[in-house]
Specification:
The structure holds two protein chains of two kinds. Chain A is mainly β. Helices cover 0% and strands 15% of the residues of chain A. A three-stranded antiparallel beta sheet of chain A has the order 2-1-3, with no helix packed on it. Chain B is an all-alpha fold. Helices cover 57% and strands 2% of the residues of chain B. A three-stranded antiparallel beta sheet of chain B has the order 1-2-3, with no helix packed on it. In chain B, strand 2 and strand 3 form a beta hairpin. In chain B, helix 6 packs across helix 11 and helix 8 crosses helix 9. The radius of gyration of chain B is 22 Å and the shape is globular. The N and C termini of chain B lie far apart (68 Å). Classes of the chains: A mainly beta, B mainly alpha. Chains A and B meet through loops of A and helix 8 and helix 9 of B.
Chain lengths: 53, 399
């Protein structure tokens, strides 16, 4: 499964682990994450800005 | 030595030699919550009750004077030392040290107010001083709440419990930073909006925003949002316990003073919010999204007094570009918009809206090259601004 990084702060969304605290359970594909979901660490960039890590 | 690493005297060794000249000045941040004790000392020493109001004098007279006399802060850490500086744990301990002094101040204030020999004016002075500390504590919470470490986010909530403002660290990180300098952001002030209009809008709007953010997050998780896992609920629960405990120990007579200190703290914090983005607006792109936040969307100041008082908060453009970056690493960008003096002195200007407008409106107009239609305009006065400045090309229309 793939990993995607926030281009601003380096937070990584790992599809294997998801981000359960944010409401994305382990295994949630990144494509199913809301495009307007902001980075949980910095809030500067959104899902649609993330880059493959 | 091949890589940069901090040494005990604040020198960062490595390819670039740079010394943090404010390294020990940051300790003053943890001394600020002791200002109310200084007020007490001055009252005892001089016998003058007026010194019970030393807190506001410290923030609104002494700090602005330091800014005006000492002036600008020339230190900007170079790129090569940022990582080592960021990882130097001394700096985070300085912010943690604020919290015990803050709480010592709160408990001492509550005890003093409960004693019979003080009159109402003295008690009001004590509550105002505690409120000044509470407001600066929101700034400490701001520094801690932006960090990835969960213990630091808990420390942020502890700082905010005194003002019942625990929702701030949710709204600020997930709301304000996302929508900054847009009309949708309750914490970005608009051109033509005075601070007294901004205060109710930001307080109510931020509260609603924090609640909506947590409800959305918890709904996504598939549960009820009325739970202690809701960060707004658990942060407020801390305030309920704190205030309940203080009232149980010192009596219900303390309640009006607790409310007063919270209001002073919230007012101080929201006044800073008011001046950070006054009139700034990100433009909409063709995609419908807002352009990315850049240094031109925040008002900065680089005066040394307020820099130390507020942990470099005034290097605000860098903070919005890199919100998780620690205070000691924030840099001053020479190209970013600059206020005439430090944040503390600028708050004084907000008190009289006509003075604020006289100083700041020309700066906002110049920032947009005379085209105020690109500014974040206060709807009620938008027409007046547009006709007065009409894109900077024609003369003002008749009023």
């Amino acid at each position: 499964m793939a990993r995607f990084a926030c281009p601003s702060c380096g937070y990584v969304y790992d599809e294997d682990r998801g981000d359960p605290r944010e409401g994305w359970p382990a295994g949630t594909p990144f494509s199913e994450v809301d495009p307007d979901w902001p980075c949980p660490d910095c809030g500067v960039r959104e899902q649609q800005d993330f880059e493959p890590a | 030595m091949t890589s940069a690493s901090p040494t005990t005297d604040g020198q960062v060794a490595g390819p670039v030699q740079w010394r943090d000249r404010k390294r020990y000045a940051w300790l003053l941040g943890a001394v600020i919550p002791a200002v109310p004790f200084l007020a007490w000392g001055l009252v005892t020493w001089t016998g003058l009750d007026a010194f019970w109001f030393f807190g506001p004098v410290f923030v609104f007279v002494l700090i602005p004077l330091v800014d005006l006399v000492v002036g600008r802060d020339p230190d900007n850490p170079p790129d090569e030392v940022l990582e080592a500086l960021e990882e130097d744990r001394y700096y985070r301990w300085v912010t943690y040290a604020f919290i015990p002094v803050q709480y010592l101040c709160l408990f001492w204030t509550a005890w003093m107010i409960s004693r019979p020999h003080l009159d109402v004016a003295d008690r009001v002075g004590l509550a105002v001083n505690a409120g000044i500390v509470a407001g600066i504590a929101i700034n400490t919470a701001h520094e801690l709440g932006h960090k990835r470490e969960s213990h630091e986010r808990w420390f942020a909530r502890i700082c905010l419990a005194q003002t019942f403002y625990g929702h701030f660290f949710i709204e600020h990180n997930r709301g304000h930073h996302v929508r900054v300098a847009t009309p949708e952001d309750p914490a970005s002030s608009r051109l033509g909006e005075n601070v007294w209009e901004f205060l109710p809008r930001t307080v109510v709007g931020s509260l609603r925003s924090a609640w909506a953010l947590e409800r959305r997050r918890l709904t996504r998780k598939g549960g009820n949002h009325l739970t202690l896992r809701n960060d707004v609920v658990n942060a407020w629960a801390m305030s309920v316990v704190l205030w309940g405990g203080l009232l149980a120990v010192f009596g219900l007579g303390l309640l009006p003073y607790l409310v007063l200190q919270a209001l002073v703290g919230i007012w101080l914090l929201e006044s800073v919010n008011y001046l950070e983005h006054y009139g700034m607006r990100r433009q909409r792109l063709e995609s419908g999204r807002y352009e990315r936040v850049d240094p031109s969307h925040s008002w900065n100041s680089n005066n040394i007094g307020t820099n130390v008082l507020l942990y470099h908060l005034q290097r605000h453009s860098d903070h919005h570009a890199n919100p998780t970056r620690r205070y000691q690493t924030l840099r001053d960008f020479p190209e970013s918009p600059v206020l005439p003096t430090g944040y503390a002195g600028m708050i004084v200007l907000t008190w009289v809206p006509a003075v604020w407008r006289a100083v700041m409106d020309p700066k906002v107009v110049a920032h947009f090259d005379g085209d105020v239609s690109r500014a974040n305009l206060h709807p009620r006065r938008a027409q007046r601004y547009l006709s007065r400045h009409s894109a900077g090309t024609t003369r003002p229309a008749a009023a």
